[in-house]
Design brief:
The protein contains 16 helices and 13 strands. The protein has 377 residues and is α/β, with parallel strands linked by helices. The chain binds uridine-diphosphate-N-acetylglucosamine and uridine-5'-diphosphate.
Length: 377
């Protein structure tokens, strides 16, 4: 039996998607005696983060509670850097893990680098090659990539992007995306306890017989005119009596004010609060089509064979498009309505997209990541 002390790993995150994509890693680290897993949340998101923590059974060891209403990128980043630095000084981790491309991930990586603590990057190497789409995530991800010790690339496409940037091959590992682990986990939880996802029953009864379109939207580069166009498209498609829209509205005020102004009161459009992960998984399963600008939803939909129309000009996740399950449609209202109408009216076009693929992984990413970390301690 080894008497070595477990390696202290600090996992840092702050928003809903990071929490969803890191809980499988945290579960795996906590179950492994080679590691001591310390969890620090910045709470860049508050309610939407807490929804995930509760479902995943994670109680953070440190909570910076930084979220401010309608926060600016510079104030947020400054608070994150000083707050996360203080936590790192107190925790003295052997390594730090960050995920993806948020302000928290970027500041967490930078604070670790300032202390010469190795940073490991989950979901590394995604590139759109346009620094304003997604903004500011494309650059956040590149900044983290410049400092990371281990780069956990979800796919061979993201691995190739890192190798082209001269990251040493031995530091890049294709693991799959942990979002698929998370989706499998939550699906199993719902299988054991269907009540976890039964909260949409009333809405499902109200919309029985109609074809459900699930919508999410939150991208900063879509604020203003983009959000107006998205709302207009939803309004227009909702004129069809055979359609119903379920739209859990992101808590960002720049999203809510537009959606509430344009879509409130429409009989077949349900503007609802952000769903917890089991209920969002339920929405993914009952929706005929997903219309979104989300990163995570672009990864989940192909795994479930749900056609997803991506309201972006470009994507750092081309695998869903290549697999045929996702299509980039931008944010022009007329284009969105045309694409939705094609999927609704042309069975062949729909069937061509509605095939399950797993370009983003097999649900075993977290255990691969933990084994790779074990080689470093
Ligand atoms: C952030 C990330 C983005 C990620 C997205 C996932 C950055 C710069 N942006 O964008 O990469 O795709 O999260 O959703 O890191 N709010 C609440 N409660 C919440 C969450 C948000 O009220 O639980 C409101 C607050 O007014 C907050 C605002 O939303 O100021 C914006 O939050 P912020 O994290 O800055 O940006 P997001 O647009 O959510
Ligand atoms: N999601 C959720 N509830 C919702 C909307 C989304 O649990 O009401 C999940 C979704 O399944 C995905 C993640 O949140 O895993 C995506 O988060 P978001 O779109 O906020 O961020 P992005 O992925 O674009 O960074």
């Amino acid at each position: 039996m080894s008497t070595a002390r477990p390696a202290r790993i600090l996992v840092v995150f702050g928003t809903r998607p990071e929490a969803i994509k890191l809980f499988p890693v945290i579960h795996a680290l906590k179950a492994d005696s080679r590691f001591e897993c310390v969890v620090c949340v910045s709470a860049q998101h508050r309610q939407m983060l807490d929804q995930v923590l509760e479902i995943a059974g994670i109680v953070p060891d440190h909570d910076l509670d930084v979220m401010q209403p309608d926060q600016t990128l510079d104030a947020l980043t400054a608070n994150l850097l000083t707050g996360l630095g203080r936590v790192m000084d107190a925790v003295q981790p052997a390594r730090v893990i960050v995920q993806g491309d948020t302000a928290t991930a970027m500041a967490g990586a930078l604070a670790a680098y300032y202390r010469k603590v190795p940073v490991d990057h989950v979901e590394a190497g995604l590139r759109s090659f346009n620094i304003y789409h997604p903004w500011p995530e494309e650059v956040n991800r590149k900044i983290i990539g410049a400092m990371a010790s281990l780069h956990f690339a979800p796919t061979t496409t993201s691995e190739a992007a890192l190798l082209r940037e001269n990251v040493p091959a031995g530091r890049v590992h294709v693991t799959g995306n942990t979002v698929i682990d998370a989706l499998h986990w939550v699906t199993a939880q719902i299988g054991r306890d269907p009540a976890l996802a039964s909260g949409l029953a009333e809405l499902e009864a109200r919309f029985a017989g109609r074809r459900i379109i699930g919508v999410t939207s939150h991208r900063r580069e879509n604020f203003g005119e983009g959000m107006e166009q998205i709302a207009r498209a939803v309004r227009e498609i909702a004129q069809r009596p055979d359609v119903a829209v379920i739209f859990p509205v992101h808590l960002n005020p720049n999203v809510r004010k537009v959606m509430n102004a344009q879509l409130a009161g429409l009989e077949n459009v349900a503007l609802i609060e952000p769903l917890d992960y089991p209920h969002f998984a339920r929405l993914l399963s009952i929706a005929e089509i997903m219309l979104t600008d989300s990163g995570g939803v672009q990864e989940e939909a192909p795994a479930l064979g749900k056609p997803v129309l991506v309201m972006r000009e470009t994507t750092e996740r081309p695998e869903g498009v290549d697999a045929g399950t996702a299509r980039l449609v931008g944010t022009d209202a007329a284009r969105i309505v045309t694409e939705l109408s094609t999927l609704l009216d042309d069975r062949e076009a729909y069937e061509a997209m509605a095939r399950a693929h797993n370009p983003f992984g097999d649900g075993q990413a977290a255990s691969r990541i933990v084994e790779l970390l074990a080689h470093e301690i």
